[in-house]
Amino acid sequence: MKGNWHLIALAMLASSFPVFLHKSIVVFFFLLWITMLYLLNRLTGRQLLLVISSLVLFSGWIVFTHELSPSPDSDPDIIQGKIIGSIQKSPEKTVFTVKDTSSGLKTLVTYFNNQDKNGNSGPPFEQLRRGADCRIKGRFELPPQATNPGEFDYREYLKSKDISYQLILSSTDNIDCKGSSYLHYVDQIRSSVLRYNNSHLSSFSASWLNALLIGDDTQLPEEQSDRFQRWGISHLLAISGLHVGLLMAIFYHLAVKTGWWTIEKIQSGLIAILPIYAILAGESPSVWRACLLAVLLIVCKKLKCSLSLTDCLSLIFIGLMAGNPRLIMQTGFQFSYLITFGLLLSKKFFSKSFSFLYISLSVSLIAQLTILPIQLDTFYFFQPLSIILNLFVVPYFTLFVMPCLLTLQFSVLVIAPLSAYLDSVFFSIHRSMLLLLGKLDRLIDFSWVIGDFPVVMYFPYFIFLIMFMAKVTAERRFQALLYGSSLVALLVTISLAPFFNPNGKVTMLDVGQGDCFVIELPHRKGVILIDAAGATSADFHSSTDKVYKQIIKPYLYYRGITTIDGLFLSHGDMDHDGSAPYLLHDMEVKKLITSPYYQFDHQLTDELEKRGTRVVQLNAGQSITVGGQTLFILSPTRDSGNPNDNSLVLFSKIGGKRWLFTGDVGKEAEKAVTDAYPYLRIDVLKVAHHGSKTSTSKEILQQTTPKAALISVGKSNRYGHPHQEVLEKLRHFDTSAMRTDRQGAVWYSFFGQDGTFYSFLP
Amino acid sequence: MHCLWCDEEVVPEVHWGNLLLPDRITHLCGKCEAALEKLEGNLCDKCGRHVDREGETCRDCRRWEQLSQWEGVLTRNRSVYTYNGRMQTMLAKWKYRGDYKLREAFEHEFRDTFHQVFTRDFRKRATLVPIPLSEERLCERGFNQAAALIDLLGKPAEQLLTRTHGEKQSKKTRRERIFTENPFTLTRPTDKPVILIDDIYTTGTTLRHAARTLKNQGCPEVFSLTLARS
Q: Would you identify the CATH topology of the domain B37-229?
């Protein structure tokens, strides 16, 4: 199997598709491919047998571990288990994982530090140690799952870490722990180094030091990690093969050149140190991958066993996947393996000795191309210029930041006086670099929003990529160009797909207690938003970008939308317009439509001015056409003095159905509408004010006879919406209600005059 | 996998070019593979050795064709490798010292040349005939190298010829070789074209003798394919 271990790794990968992504066809194609290789005499019968049997065995193993049904014990309020992994402490909270002794299920336990009523911010958490046996009281629940298309799924994320439940620890009295494992001492070293760095260095340097050497990125400002992510260079913020390789090189040279140790001793030393460093550095998949790969290579060298690099990588992949098949669903794991595998495959290409610049550019390009589908699957966009940015940033991190931080770490622990000087050097250089990066970010933001990358497109994509690289390596320029253009054509096709799609869509996003409707016209003739709910901050006075960032923007990007032809804001409540400023900031909004009585706050006015967005204020009786879709304004006719009653009421015929969007209007305003339009008949009613009993009168239902009602409402909200009375009225008039708190996002997908309603949750 | 010649371990290296379609299973390591010289480029139209210009016939072949009794007896010969030092030692180990498995080292290239030289249609029509060994020689070696090569092609070998025992070819001079008696006798005549298979083409006498024997009894055309050309 030597030289072919990647086939076993690929077999494992293929076998994970049917279970995790419901794509059994992948296994079929894999088998077809492998059999073909055998028939073409490229594999021996023994190899074929080995690959197929590992496919079968691993499929069985995945199904077995997958079916380990997460049913809570008889007493769901108490867990008896062992703490596994490290305990993550930050100023706000303490997080750790407990593995139940009897069921083997893992629970993520979170304790918010400042919730003690006595103001005890430093809780007596000394007994919290890795490997401790704990008895925890509390309610354990399923982690929240995504309820909108495109939204990050926390439940799936935790599952990929093999964690099935979460528990919020309300008080330190509810936990009782005893004992610890040896690895606890590594955790102690880690936390004391973190503490030491924080107390002896400037917070700026300490945050970077802790992130890049100790793998604790909680102190890095979110703005930085966002920016790095946007530019596809977040791999620099995670400890990866680059860091481990660099550390090893420095360690090796120091030891050999100074003559402290023999090479053999260093090798043994590294075998012992690297796993400890992996734990010390936060145990992320990329750290483990890098450390284990290094260890395996050294062991191979010592045993004079000629395994190729790809074999070593594959063996580690096989080992880690056998331990936890769900790892394959972790984005970090996927990125780390794909990039490493892609670069190892390019060894032959790099061996042709090009200039340093050319090689750096190629590394950057190969890394970017191998992870592109996953980048798109996760973020729905990518930054083509990041390839060039990588060219400068990677050497900067490798040649300056890392050595500088290493010296800083060394000096702060050993030669304290030097550290203050180094600290200031690092501070001034790195800060200006970050400022420059920030400027670049604002100046040349050419991110390309492609939208969802369909899983079936992975295959043509990777085949084109492999052929492209093969032809480049073989110096077949013309063919390389051909495959390269196919690759780009594939991306262009995916991003243009909406323009060829004759289906339209009306989506009620689950934004919690608030409204946000997205109307996508067929052939992408226009995108209309009715309301953009914001999230209220903890003090209920201002809005935050949480809803925008977690729900609205991901959804729009997921659909490949960056231009909004019309944004209607029904009225000036946070749960209807709170995300408008962010939307204006990020997207191209062509028109903003409100009633004449809408009060603009200064944040919105600022953005409107900055972007030069046209504002249209419409009265009842007027209409507006956006992307060929006409919407009629039925209300307000006058300023009622109450923002809710001043809500825009919109009527439109979309996809063969008549829709009425009502904002937050009360019964009186509803009456004004039904009085003014006595012959108004509708099919779909957006239930006003999230189903409050002060809206949705019997009369409006009786007169307009809607068949379906949409209720956008938060899960167990504090207002008791939707009101029982309203639900009963709807039932009485045979109007079927669809609500976001139960079904998640609800959408109507139509072709011509026909369509169907779907919901995100079953 | 270990190299059949130097026993060095061969670890295939995956790169972009062989990820989808892995390289053929090799029996020689890269170094030993490189030590063999493939016959490519401008080859003699008749015997397949290197010549200066394309489509040229070498001096030896012109001499053969001038002799009326040999003219057109052998339509064309093609060989896979040059008979260089490495080839010589490999053939010696294979043939004389009985390393039968070593033939696998030539498998891919021999098959490729066979497919390149003869069209699919011709391959179907033609009969593959190994140059036979005399019974004594076969007894001595244990196998017929020509039959072993046909076996590599996955085709049936037709034993149409037998050979009377004589002195070893390799012990004779060029003159002696060319003017020896024909050592071959036909076991049964054929009316199909024939591809003669042998391990090495040196002067071409053996192959021509065999070809003439076949042609005298009604065989329409004779080609030959050998592993090496000296």
A: Rossmann fold (3.40.50)
